[in-house]
Amino acid sequence: MSKKALIIGAGGVGGVVTHKCAQVPEVFGDILLASRTEAKCKAIAEQIARPIRTARVDADNVEETTALLRREKPDVVINVALPYQDLPLMDACLAAGIDYLDTANYEPPDTAKFEYKWQWAYHDRFKDAGLMALLGSGFDPGVTNVFTAYAAKHHFDEIHELDIIDCNAGDHGHPFATNFNPEINIREVTARGRFYEEGEWKSTDPLTVSKTYDFPEGIGPKKIYLLYHEELESIVKFFPTLKRARFWMTFSDNYLKHLEVLQNVGMTRIDPVEFEGKQIIPIQFLKALLPDPASLGPRTKGKTCIGCVVKGVKDGKERTYYVYNICDHEACYREVKSQAISYTTGVPAMIGAKMMLTGKWRGEGVFNMEQFDPDPFMEALNEHGLPWQETFL
Ligand code: NDP
Asked: Which atom from ligand 1 is nearest to the alpha carbon of 15?
């Protein structure tokens, strides 16, 4: 039963996935962690009592990755590098005949735009090869898709409205830092807001729609902002009864103030700029200046609360259901040396791989999380450190 996993990407999320896979030896018998900088893999491996093998790989290079896959023959590739590596890694998996999982959909490096179309286009090739690719097995996307599927399966005859609400009530004490890769985070936050209503996508200027939401378990009221988030695209496709689907995230005034200045002076640009005879991309330079998200672990206090508010009809009556997880930054650090943002992404990545390796979720082709039975995944969340609560509002 025990299988071999190849984790690619030794950043904040990669560290958590490695720790969590190591906690489940009956499924993950052999773990190999590979990244662009092998020293980062070794530093993670040293934190873990079980032996973790490491390797260096440039995941943009399909031939190099294919050679590693052919040599190692893992049962699954867990891609927690960056969204830019999704397509080259899917190509390498196809070439070597290996199943694939990731936590974020593909983005072309030169356009701040994410869509599933590039990865959905691989469906027939994975199907014909008898392989499975599971897309977006993080928290959002990931658990939020599973929460929606669970609500639809157990609590509604038809779901009509979905609000995914992501709150980080943690404090890392820096004037400005991002909780995951700064480049990916800032590209997401500065993009136009977008939501689904009555059969069409509507867009808003970035961060212009907000309201106050009162979070449970002592977190209290926080301002939430409407953003576009990738899981809306697949959820709307797989739950066609939805009349409206939106995504909201909390930001502190301090974060927004810094972001506005950085944007105004051009530091968040993703196009090359000439500087002292060299071409530099401002957002990549900014990333080099900002704290490494992996370094926030020991200093972040407070909680995250990510969940779904679902409205719909059951037995002819309207109802509103809320399902959420609360995660404590300091507890995460004690367990896996990481803050809760990486934790809430890394745990579902491990669980997604566990679902694939144990055959609880199987299919040939490219799949989103909500296409599978949510029940075993929901059970595994309780078992592996992300317990959830549910209530009717
Ligand atoms: P980090 O920047 O901390 O880590 C990314 C890692 O990938 C780095 O170790 C980097 O190596 C490695 N990497 C980058 N390019 C390559 C390459 N060409 N070949 C091999 N390795 C490479 O990011 P995070 O850990 O914060 O995020 C990881 C992923 O998780 C991202 O895709 C992010 O979008 C996703 N995510 C998903 C969430 C969800 O809920 N679904 C939430 C948060 C993140 P090096 O350090 O050597 O450059």
From this structure: 25
312 token code pair: 């719909």
Instruction: Give me the domains of the chain, ranges plus CATH numbers.
Output: 3-139+350-356 (3.40.50.720), 143-338 (3.30.360.10)
Asked if 245 and 312 touch (Cβ cutoff 8 Å), the reply is no
40 lines ligand 1 (CB under 6 A): yes
Tens-digit pLDDT profile for residues 133-157: 999 999 999 999 999 999 999 999 9
60 lines ligand 1 (CB under 6 A): yes
Backbone φ and ψ for 353, nearest 5 degrees, come out as -65, -40
Q: What is the pLDDT of residues 285-343, one digit of tens each?
A: 999 999 988 788 899 999 999 999 999 999 999 999 999 999 999 999 999 999 999 99
For tokens 């040939």, name the residue: 364
DSSP 306-326: EEEEEEEEETTEEEEEEEEEE
Q: Is the pTM of this model over 0.90?
A: yes
Residues in the chain: 393
> Which has more confidence, 182 or 99?
99
Rounded-to-10 torsion of CA 374, 379, 385, 386: 40
Residue found under tokens 């999380």: 369
Q: Is the pLDDT at 113 greater than 80, yes or no?
A: no
- Closest residue (by CA) to atom 42 of ligand 1? 345
